[in-house]
Amino acid sequence: MAKILIVDDEQAIREALVQVFEYEGHEVREATDGPEALDAVEQERPDVTFLDVKMHGMDGLETLERIREADPTGVVVMISGHGTIDTAVEATRKGAYDFLEKPLDTDRLLVTLRNALDVRGLSDSVQLLRDQVESRYEIVGASSQIRSVLERIERVAVTDARVLITGENGTGKELVARAIHRLSTRPSEKFVEVNCAAIPSELIESELFGHMKGSFTGAVADRAGKFEQADGGTLFLDEIGDMSLAAQAKVLRALEEGVVTRVGGSKVIEVDVRVIAATNKELAVEIAQGNFREDLFYRLNVVPIHVPSLRERREDIPMLVGHFMEGLTRSDRMPVKVIEDSAIERLSALDWPGNVRELRNTVERLSILAPGERIQAADVERLVVGRPTVEGSSSGTLFEAETFSEFKEKAEEAFILNRLRESDWNVSETARKIDMPRSNLYKKIERYGLTRED
Fold it and tell me: Which residue of 110, 161, 276, 387 sits 20 to 30 Å from the alpha carbon of 42, by its own alpha carbon?
């Protein structure tokens, strides 16, 4: 059951909507104008508000702005008997979820409510997801791009169709995979993750398919691979674009026949696994360059889901910042602070090459390093935007170096630290990207005392 607020100065419209929503089992409250609506929002915190555009006194657009200030996560649907494109655009710009024209169609009304509750996080399926996974696995956002991702997750999750998730590093591809698993018909079974970029090519087959004792140096016992471990559940192949061609051929066989054979073994093992793959690469380019099998691509890409970058959904940044601040507040080891609107506006204007992952780490950094109990725009300028500061480095700023040799060391430290953050501290992936042997990178990390912030 959801809490719904109806704001309209026409009694007949309010009564009709109350009848529709109460019949569906929801709790409904009415308001006749803007000030009354704001009181209701303050007291009740409705999940969805249906707000008329044309009202006496404070009109719908002004009321919308005030509601969004009082409850930034609230979902507001505008309704109007004199809808224009300009009004709809203005309402969307001010944060409205949708815009409906009178006379209201009951079916359209209920579909809009269902989708609005998905965004609010109160539909049965989305609530199941949020109840069963930790806060870190929530998909946060109300933009049209994220709504589209959530809708596709809901559609595909209840099937056993394979899914290929694409998107930049840090966008939340793993969150999408976990959401699909939690909403699937096998949520109580295992969710097994394999980072194909983090496993050396000579070990990837053993990792995926298992091995028999003595099959290679170091194989001191029989071992089940990830396909066997995920039997009955979901196998998430992250960074599938980094998998060797030999391993790709065996994955293709496993997908086609539902069987695997351990390295060094001859026994065929049947597996029932739902495979979800993800990559930050353009697989079409990899196929053209001979690095990825085209037949495997078509097997994996039954249902594609593209996760947008944070630059493509800037309107979600305030909600994400609030989500991360709330999570930090729940930690006894973190100082309780309030982030000012000016600081959120400044964060929203920045480009985020590391996407949501980078934003999360930045919010944590601000919470730790900003002086006082409030995080201000000046703190964002100093701790996030400021250059040439080596963010998170113990070495201070680059220009504090007294010699050219010291400057080069500081620059190297900053470069490595930023690349590690972009790869979520995946040392193997970072080493590959910066063209440095892993052993050398480990030495650099130890030399500069670099540690993961979270």
Answer: 110
